[in-house]
Amino acid sequence: xxxxxxxxxxxxxxxxxxxxxxxxxxxxxxxxxxxxxxxxxxxxxxxxxxxxxxxxxxxxxxxxxxxxxxxxxxxxxxxxxxxxxxxxxxxxxxxxxxxxxxxxxxxxxxxxxxxxxxxxxxxxxxxxxxxxxxxxxxxxxxxxxxxxxxxxxxxxxxxxxxxxxxxxxxxxxxxxxxxxxxxxxxxxxxxxxxxxxxxxxxxxxxxxxxx
Length: 211
Description:
alpha+beta
């Protein structure tokens, strides 16, 4: 084999490798078709009074039409007499949100349920549509924390993401009631979220819950 043959063979292999790598990168980008933005809390914030009266405020953008988001309707809800009542009913409990069933929200200071692995997305009070296009949707979701069930006078960490379409039905509605502790270390974190499967980035913040 002469040197020209070797040269062109190596160039051909390099071109194939580059094409495959680019295709893989593009596929990875396409898999992340949801973007989460968290306006509150922000890292470094000191929130609430006595462990309550603070917010988690989100905007979630999908590169998909509305039906694919899993959105099932507006909600304006809360605990007690406000649970699942008109004009915009929605259930109020821990677990996956009945109105936005792909959303995952974790707080490492959650006192009940599965603690740091407990999905608390169904505690969100206010859900609505802020933009609809033919091939994209933006939803806003807000939670006013009304009880000191997530720590008082303590540092807390929040993680927010949207679950991947795990059952392949074309809808982002596969958030669990609780995230599996994939590495069995007793704490659910970014690694456990990624192991579960996500369609979005992970928003996070380290903040202080006031006494």
